[in-house]
Amino acid sequence: MRITLREAAEFDAEAIHRMQLEAFAPLLKKYRDYGTSPATEPLEKTVSRIKNPDSRYYMILAENELAGAIHIVRKEKQGSLWISPIFIGTAHQGKGIAQTAMTMAEEQFADDKIWELSTLAEEAGNCHLYEKLGYQRTAKERKINDRATLVYYKKEMN
């Protein structure tokens, strides 16, 4: 399967937002994290991410079809990047697309040495994916509610 990243434009916001809501809806139902879930974000949040000069928002395409998206934010001038969100639409999950997309993103930002992200501790598949890609879980955690805890990951590039 051919995976590509294409930088999102403002006219892509609705399609990205629609897929984001779909991708995170099962997690929202399961964890009831209404204050933090990407499934509750308004369209304007997607638009602002696309327009943010300190970030890049990429559509993840599988065989030229929208499969998901990854938002990369520059945290510091000296090469620290934050991924939030990354998601794959439900029809495309479980096919290795996220792993390929993250590797491609890291290659596009080869001069940056520190990558960070967070995910729900209860989502073992997500944690496994990030660990397989070389991300290490940090000591930082944030309890969202009695069902969910955010855990933080960091990867230092050579």
Automatic annotation (TrEMBL):
PROSITE patterns: GNAT (PS51186)
EC annotation from Swiss-Prot or TrEMBL: 2.3.-.-
Domain of life: Bacteria
Enzyme class: transferase
Molecular function GO labels: acyltransferase activity
InterPro entries: Acyl_CoA_acyltransferase, GNAT_dom
Domain N-acetyltransferase: 3-158
Keyword Transferase among UniProt keywords: yes
Pfam families: Acetyltransf_1
Keywords: Acyltransferase, Transferase
CDD domains with a match to the protein in the record: NAT_SF
This protein's name: GNAT family N-acetyltransferase
Organism annotation: Planomicrobium okeanokoites (Planococcus okeanokoites)
